[in-house]
């Protein structure tokens, strides 16, 4: 399937939107790191908030103080969540298993 040809204006707009989305995801991860947001609250918004929904679960967990790549990998394996899974793609059981494992 070929990608559509974009005009220079459309390409510039798409790049601007992509940069805004990356900035919003960074701000979300920073809020989690500061303790202003919790993982359960963020996961509750995943289906309705596009910024949260498109963020990888592993990235959200790495934002938590004390959680590095090894601990996050172990937690994802323990809960049966693929490392590439995005927040909106979590099923109800996976979401609950993750919340329970974080307690």
From TrEMBL:
UniProt cross-references to NCBIfam families, sorted A to Z: actino_IHF
Pfam families cross-referenced by the UniProt entry: H2TH_5
Name the UniProt record assigns to this protein: Integration host factor, actinobacterial type
Taxonomic lineage: Bacteria, Bacillati, Actinomycetota, Actinomycetes, Pseudonocardiales
Gene from which this protein is expressed: mihF_1
Organism: Pseudonocardia adelaidensis
Residue stretches making up the Integration host factor-like helix-two turn-helix domain: 34-100
């Amino acid at each position: 399937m070929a990608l559509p040809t974009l005009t220079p204006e459309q390409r510039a707009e798409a790049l601007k939107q992509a940069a805004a989305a990356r900035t919003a995801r960074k701000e979300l991860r920073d809020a989690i790191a500061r303790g202003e947001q919790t993982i359960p609250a963020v996961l509750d918004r995943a289906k309705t908030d596009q910024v949260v929904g498109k963020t990888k679960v592993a990235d959200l967990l790495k934002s938590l103080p004390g959680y590095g790549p090894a601990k996050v990998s172990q937690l994802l394996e323990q809960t049966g969540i693929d490392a590439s899974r995005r927040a909106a793609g979590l099923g109800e059981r996976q979401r609950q298993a993750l919340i329970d494992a974080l307690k």
